[in-house]
Specification:
This protein has 126 residues and is α+β, with helices and mostly antiparallel strands. It is built from three helices and eight strands. Strand 5 and strand 6 form a beta hairpin. Helix 2 crosses helix 3. The radius of gyration is 14 Å and the shape is globular. The mean pLDDT is 96.
């Protein structure tokens, strides 16, 4: 079982089902396919709220670089990866909850500010 917390800006989309993926930093114990996910907002506060429970359907390794290149890997830090096209990066950002006219630009700025770049982690889908 994995517990994932979402910032308020993403909570409604997770709860409604329009956001069915998340990109997370590497964990000591990575999320696995078929693992039960408990999706929350406001963890460790009085306003903590369960958004939904879901089953993990896919997990990919992901690297986001300061150049804007995004590479996905079949396994966590797999030996070979595939660099996403501009169209695929825009789609990835929209599926991850970024909605502006330049969704990927927003996502890149978010990861730069929140995690720093380069970023290495997991793309988790439910």
């Amino acid at each position: 079982m994995a517990i994932l917390n979402f910032q308020q800006q993403f909570a409604d989309d997770v709860e409604s089902g329009s956001k069915r993926q998340t990109i997370r930093a590497e964990r000591k114990r990575p999320v696995r396919v078929e693992e039960r996910l408990h999706l929350y907002t406001g963890l460790r506060t009085k306003r903590a709220r369960l958004l939904k429970r879901a089953l993990c359907m896919e997990v990919w390794g992901i690297a986001i670089r300061s150049t804007g290149n995004v590479t996905v890997y079949e396994t966590h830090h797999g030996a070979t990866g595939r660099t996403l096209t501009d169209t695929e990066k825009e789609g990835l950002a929209r599926l991850d909850g970024f909605k502006g006219p330049d969704a990927f630009g927003e996502m890149l700025a978010f990861f730069r500010e929140t995690h720093g770049l380069p970023f290495f982690g997991q793309l988790i889908k439910w």
